[in-house]
Write a structure and sequence with these properties.
Helix 1 packs antiparallel against helix 8 and helix 2 runs parallel beside helix 8. The protein is of the alpha/beta class. Helix content is 41%, strand content 13%. It is built from twelve helices and twelve strands. The chain has a seven-stranded mixed β-sheet with strand order 2-8-7-6-5-3-4, with helices on both faces. It has a three-stranded antiparallel β-sheet with strand order 9-10-12. It has two domains: 134 residues, Alpha-Beta Complex (Aspartate Aminotransferase, domain 1); 234 residues, 3-Layer(aba) Sandwich (Aspartate Aminotransferase, domain 2), CATH 3.40.640.10. Helix 6 links the parallel strand 5 and strand 6. It starts with a strand and ends with a helix.
């Protein structure tokens, strides 16, 4: 059976153009980018070019891009690195942050920081009124993701940043799930730092970036030889970085045409879901075009994911990093969704190679799976 992949928010397949760009640096161009000889010089040129490609996609200067091992490291590097430069005060993060922001934020409470979780409404949008309330207390760091990895809901980061800057806080956004799906402009968002990742935009796993305002300095998370302008020591992953740069350039070229096509398929999916007594989370908010997060009351999300996998369709029951957990989604609970409904959540995320025919096939398979599960439930009762 050929499986159809609808889990692009977890990871994306490596683009052929990205692989082509990487291969020379996995074979003959194996130099260390810090070496002074020709091999090293070629590697350094490749890293510099990739830095320019990543910078161009988010509208910054190349010197602002610090390469990391991925989004998790970049988020940790900012949260812990900012805390290392500031006097402990309040740290405010949204209640729907990815664990790689939420957990380091929680860890800082042991170092004297006070953690404040910013509330969201029933559609998963950060409450700007609660931001204002939170900022009445001295606040050093604010971190709010640009697009949620589960619901796809887009946050008004620029408005949050305006309030946070007025309170003299450093502002960070995790833009991993937004990059390549919507326009991401560092300056327009008015943040001090932004996290990016390659494998969400058809690039390789194991490489990401922290984009920094040139006026701030972080305490490095990893110390050593002073690579990446002293912000992230360690021999550069040249092939991965080259792949990240290529993926950013390809994303810039395809986004204008891809976004409306993905949105049309997502909307077609949701029209079908509406005829199946579904609950669609975040449907009233602005979302990235490829994502739909839904549930069928009375049916466990994990069961539905397994059944759909057996029918030939790969979807997720939540964030990939926490898919082994049986706890309801923290994002949905923060939105006020009842735990029994949240446990039924399934995330469907489209990619560039998906087709309308595949979505139609998915809806037919889903209808069949639901009918069988409901029959089994009725028999059990």
């Amino acid at each position: 059976m050929t499986h159809v992949y609808f889990d692009h928010n977890a990871t994306t397949p490596l683009d052929e153009g990205v692989l082509e760009a990487m291969l020379p640096y996995l074979r003959e161009q194996y130099g260390n980018a810090s070496s002074r000889h020709e091999f090293g010089t070629q590697a350094r040129k490749a890293v510099n070019q990739a830095r320019e490609q990543v910078a161009a996609l988010v509208g910054v200067q190349p010197v602002q891009v610090v390469f990391t091992s991925g989004g998790t490291e970049a988020n940790n590097a900012f949260i812990k690195g900012a805390a290392g430069m500031l006097k402990p005060s309040q740290l405010a993060v949204s209640a729907i942050e990815h664990p790689c922001v939420a957990r380091p934020a929680q860890e800082l409470t042991r170092a004297g920081w006070k953690l404040r979780k910013l509330a969201v409404d029933s559609d998963g949008r950060v409450d700007l009124g609660d931001v204002a309330q939170a900022l009445k207390e001295p606040t050093g760091i604010v971190s709010v993701m640009l697009a949620n990895n589960e619901t796809g809901v887009i946050q008004d980061v620029a408005a949050i940043a305006e309030q946070a800057r007025a309170a003299r806080a450093w502002v960070h956004t995790d833009a991993v799930q937004a990059l390549g799906k919507i326009d991401v402009d560092f300056s327009a968002l008015n943040v001090h730092a932004m996290t990016l990742s390659a494998h969400k935009i058809y690039g390789p796993k194991g490489v990401g970036a922290l984009v920094l305002d040139k006026r701030i300095e972080l305490k490095p998370l990893i110390s050593g030889g002073g690579h990446e302008q002293g912000q992230r020591s360690g021999t550069e992953n040249v092939a991965g970085i080259v792949g990240f740069g290529a993926a950013c350039e390809l994303a810039a070229g395809r986004m204008r045409d891809l976004a409306p096509r993905l949105a049309a398929m997502r909307d077609e999916l949701e029209r079908g879901l509406c005829g199946m007594d579904s609950v669609i989370f975040g449907a009233g908010a602005k979302r990235v075009p490829n994502t739909s997060y839904f549930a069928f009351p009375g049916i466990e999300g994990e069961t539905l994911v397994i059944e759909l996998d057996q029918a030939g369709f790969a979807v997720a029951s939540g964030a990939a990093c926490s898919s082994t957990s049986t706890e309801p989604s923290a994002t949905l609970l923060a939105m006020g969704i009842a735990p029994e409904v949240a446990r039924g959540a399934v995330r469907f995320s489209l990619g560039k190679d998906n087709t309308a025919a595949q979505v139609a096939d998915f809806l037919r398979a889903l209808a069949g799976v639901l009918a069988r599960l409901k029959r089994l439930t009725a028999i059990a009762v």
